[in-house]
Design goal:
single chain; Death Domain, Fas; 6 helices; CARD; DEATH-like_dom_sf; CARD domain-containing protein
Length: about 90
């Protein structure tokens, strides 16, 4: 269900998420093993909207656990946006 939630808020997430929050998400998701080093580096090279879009897509493709971790990290990194998106 978490991957479905992410799909539903994808456009809003891309519009709202800030660069510092994206970088925090990338750091934490690399640390907990959701992202590989090469995925992390590739995402960091992108502009903010593309980075946000591909981060959600990558987590969704990796399944429910990866999607849940993305939501959990977002709830810590930006609780306001997490609530506004209806993820928390």
């Amino acid at each position: 269900m978490n991957s479905e939630k992410l799909f539903q808020v994808r456009c809003s997430f891309v519009e709202k998420v800030s660069e510092p929050v994206l970088n925090k998400l990338l750091d934490e998701l690399l640390h907990c093993g959701v992202l590989t080093d090469s995925e992390n580096e590739a995402l960091r090279a992108k502009l903010r909207p593309d980075k946000a879009r591909e981060l959600i897509d990558t987590a969704r493709k990796k399944g429910a656990d990866a999607s849940a971790k993305l939501i959990a990290v977002l709830s810590t990194a930006d609780p306001y946006s997490c609530r506004e998106l209806g993820l928390c």
